[in-house]
Amino acid sequence: MADRLVVFIDYQNVHGSARRQFFPAGSHPAEGHIDPLRLAHLLAKRRSRQTLVEGVRIYRGRPNPIHQARSAAANDRQTETWRRSSLVTVVRRPLQYRHDYPVTPAVEKGIDVALAVDVVAMGLRKEYDAAIVFSSDTDLMPAIETVYYNQLGHIELATWAGANRLRFPDTQLPYCHYVREQEFRTIEDRTDYTIP
Question: What's this model's pTM, rounded to 2 decimal places?
Answer without folding.
Answer: 0.97
